[in-house]
Amino acid sequence: CMTLVKECWKASQLPTLPCEGDTCWTRVDVGNEHYISANVYLRGALSDSDYAEALSDIQHRLSSLQSNKSYAMLAGDINVDTGRANDAAKASTTAATIKAGGLYRTDLTPALASLPTHVPWQAGIGHSHIDALAVDVRLKPKVVACGIDLDITTPLIPLSDHRPLWVSYTLRATKVPPPPCSIVFKVGKATAHQWDQARHKLEKFSNDWLPQAKHRAATSAASQRQGLADTLTEEVTSAMHKVHAQTIGTQKVRVGSCKVW
Hints:
The chain is of the alpha+beta class and 261 residues long. It has 5 helices and 10 strands. Helix 2 (48-65) packs parallel to helix 3 and helix 4 packs antiparallel against helix 5. The protein is elongated and about 75 Å long.
């Protein structure tokens, strides 16, 4: 995602939810395709159960963001080395969770699994493979190469003793075109009668929708809650837009490089 952002593709940072800890979310739009990356830092002090819960929350959100045109990636410092006996439980959790999310780890391919990702500057501390780079399994046929940067003389990231993990894959994409003209609501021109109409329609929607939403939330499994929350938010937003479009109306406005009203 860093490379795509550098090449001037449209990118945005998504909010981090409280249960996700130190996770940075990035979305990159590449023409008709989208790449969503969760860059994580899971602290080594986490218990096996806390680790499993944190990773599960991140994976469920990634899964909820996947679609036919949206691909997921998970990367970062997970503080788990599959070769360490005391990491066995966390390693098993990681493998199962990543597989369930439709991802696969490029850093555990045969050529890379034995290489270190953490090369401490302090003397007496051994090397370890505690970082991960997992990409959407649907991208596997497009992967050209992957690796771990172990060049100490000219490293990709000079101020860290963690070695960067990278993957290259082919893209079939076009540059994002200029944004279309924005459509906004005629807030400044709306009459009191139009606002009353909007309020009445929204109250009717709320009375019909809210009991169903509460039932869906009460009967959903924990693993489905993030996806359900996103769906409910989308339903409310869609209803508000529809009601305001019907009552106070909309108009097009010129934005940025758009040449049309």
